[in-house]
Amino acid sequence: MGMLKGANAPISVRTVRVEVVRGSGPGASVTDACALLTAEGRVRSGADTVSRSLPVHPSGAVRHEGRRSAGGTVTDTFAVGLGVLDPAVERVLFTAAAEDGDFGRVPDVHIRVLDAADGGELARYDSRDATVETVLVLGELYRRHGGWRFRAVGQGWADGPAGLAAAYGAGAAEPAAPATRPAGPGRVTLTKQAPAVSLAKQGSTSGTLHVNLNWQMRQEPRGRRARLGRAPAAGVDLDLGALYELADGTKGVVQALGNSFGSLHRPPYIHLDGDDRTGAAADGENLSVDLDHAAAFRRILVFVTIYEGAASFAGLHATVTLRPQQGAPVDFALDECTVPSTVCALALLTHDGNGLVVRREARYLVPDRGVSPQRTLDRAYDWGLQWTPGRK
Fold it and tell me: Where does the source fall among the domains of life (predicted)?
């Protein structure tokens, strides 16, 4: 069946064939195709890229079965054993890359999902609006409530592998070498002058939004560190969290304190993945939001508190990245902290009727004596929760 961009359909069989099809002929760009396996929204390594040059995934669950040219089209076929995929693999994305131009010059670009047993068509998506993109994610197979579904994605980047890698990880680099372009929608950086972005307008209306916080201590001359109660970098423990208010009026908090880690698959549809005690650049703290339930949110305030190891954020360099499964990543850096703050409001997500809008807050707050960081945040944003002491 033909599908619109963003639509999804259930896949009830255990083994499928996926065809990535594009037109060929005079004036059309030379193209390549590959499948990407992602876990927690990221490609784990180059081994999770399956293509003509790397035709079999180490697990054997995804295979490139060859390329054929006929009737003015080129087709790459992938076999996917949904029933034998590693449980850590959440999605299999199917991409196409243009080697010597863009997809505005490539006719008849589409993807088909077929029942491997009888060849019956289960889903089809035709990409009709590509222009300057040199890499496209045409569609994806993804887990949902114990089963599998196919989504028509139609998301592209003009900067080729760089945009794809920014969205899904360094291992997502394409085997082909698309032409370099001077600019493209690979990343959105929020600033004081441009503090907000609509996820819906970026094409991010479904899937999981991953929010990551990483930090490190700036190195400064000896003697300056103590001015705002600074502590050595070792042992600085920051906690990412979120205040939420749902459309039905339900309010709460997701945070490591009190082991309130939330849930991605039931209200509040927000989950704190873990508690990183170091801020290591590879991991940091991660929060997930289910955009399939975006309409259930009224507002979400993402925040960070200092649990131990420092008396304020002074001297800490932190970066926030919001990475949706469709659309460009959104990031921003925190400004230098010049007050004795132990809690910082990072980003406010609100629903505007179409989807979530992300606004950069980067607002350092100073608790009054005897007032917790969380209660200070609650007062500043008028959340109205009742707070009790908690531990982790």
Answer: Bacteria
